[in-house]
Amino acid sequence: xxxxxINDCRCENAKIRQLxxxxxxxxxxxxxxxxxxxxxxxxxxGDVLDASEGRKGVVLVNVAPxxxxxxxxxxGTPFGYFFxxxxxxxxxxxxxxxxxxxxxxxxxxxRVIDIPEVLSFIKEKEKLSESLCDQIIxxxxxxxxxxxxxxxWILNGYxxxxxxxxxxxxESALGTVCWIDNFGNCKTNILEKEKQDEIxxxxxxxxxxxxxxxxxxxxxxxxxxxxGVGDSRFLEIVVQGKSAAKIFNLQVGNxxx
Length: 257
Description:
The protein has eight helices and 14 strands. By secondary structure, the chain is α/β, with parallel strands linked by helices.
């Protein structure tokens, strides 16, 4: 059993509170990945599911700003859940967070859960106080007050109310940099099978190599990276022995190829 948290509330205060709350509710190891955007969260989510291979565990994902488009919701974007084999995933549904799950066909829909409706359903069953219910419904820190609790309720077998939500409604993010690793390799959301005959970046034609080790020293290229799920792996832009991100001035969100 494992618990993985993917969250943009990543300062030390927010991180330790989320880790402690999850550890106190589950007899499992807990891991945390702090991200800056829904695009990064989408990529990490895919890689976490690949790493788990669908074993028993929980992945909690929340990238849900309250400003801008987030204002249209009563208290942040709704959450939805699905299972990848024996791995329970609960995630915010707005933006790009579920875009990799959609692209890889991991699930076609998620079960959207409304916080007040869930609390109304679970209150008597779990003997929750009125004040705790109000706190969970109105909290500014749903990743701490709500997500680990609802995950525990689902794993305990409660059939909490939900509405089916098709991933056709989820935004796609084709042809962009989604993660930059510590070597400066730029991970994209382009699959090998989507590779065009000629790959170019900033007007420069890049050769394609199946493996990173085959790229000559100092040469820029596109390779099949390690990220993805199962047989579906994403392309990476690399410069052998150097940082592709620095050389091409790439950042997460930049369109490529």
